[in-house]
Design brief:
By secondary structure, the chain is an alpha/beta fold. Helix 1 runs parallel beside helix 5 and helix 3 packs across helix 5. It catalyses: pseudouridine(1915) in 23S rRNA + S-adenosyl-L-methionine = N(3)-methylpseudouridine(1915) in 23S rRNA + S-adenosyl-L-homocysteine + H(+).
Length: about 160
């Protein structure tokens, strides 16, 4: 199974970038995984939140193939414990050719992106910056990979 994380805008904090790159490299030992960054929309000062979400949504939808299983990271999505997330990933590896996770922009997703999504996941009831959520999520993917392989990274 191939998997991809699509994000809006570059990660700017060099420490977060280094950690994301480290986990991305670690994940590559377990599965095909990539991160695609969609550039921030320019001149958003004169743009409503809805227009911004629509423009971001158009760019997201261009990156997704009809056969992709699309999972939005969304505060209203399903929450998992790490072991449950690993089991969920393991099932997707059996039944899915390409798994695409999407972290939206600051205002969330457009209705069209919600319509296209197959599932929604929530990492927490708390709110995190879009920079931090990338790192937290990629670490959870790595953790899931080690759980699936029975490796000692995760402790009960």
């Amino acid at each position: 199974m191939k998997s991809e994380l699509i994000v809006i805008g570059k990660t700017v904090d060099k420490h977060i970038i280094a950690c994301i790159e480290d986990y991305n490299k670690r994940i590559s030992h377990y599965m095909s995984f990539g991160i695609t960054t969609i550039p921030n929309i320019k001149d958003t000062k004169n743009m409503s939140e809805d227009v911004q979400k629509e423009k971001e949504g158009e760019m997201i939808l261009k990156m997704i193939q009809p056969s992709d299983h699309v999972v939005l990271l969304d505060e209203h999505g399903k929450s998992f414990r790490s072991i449950e997330f690993a089991e969920w990933i393991e099932q997707k590896q059996i039944h899915t050719r390409k798994l695409v996770f999407v972290i939206g922009g600051p205002y969330g997703f457009s209705p069209k992106v919600y319509e296209r999504a197959n599932e929604k996941l929530s990492l927490s009831k708390m709110t995190f910056s879009h920079q931090m959520i990338r790192l937290i999520f990629i670490e959870q993917i790595y953790r899931a990979c080690t759980i699936i392989k029975g490796e000692p990274y995760h402790h009960e």
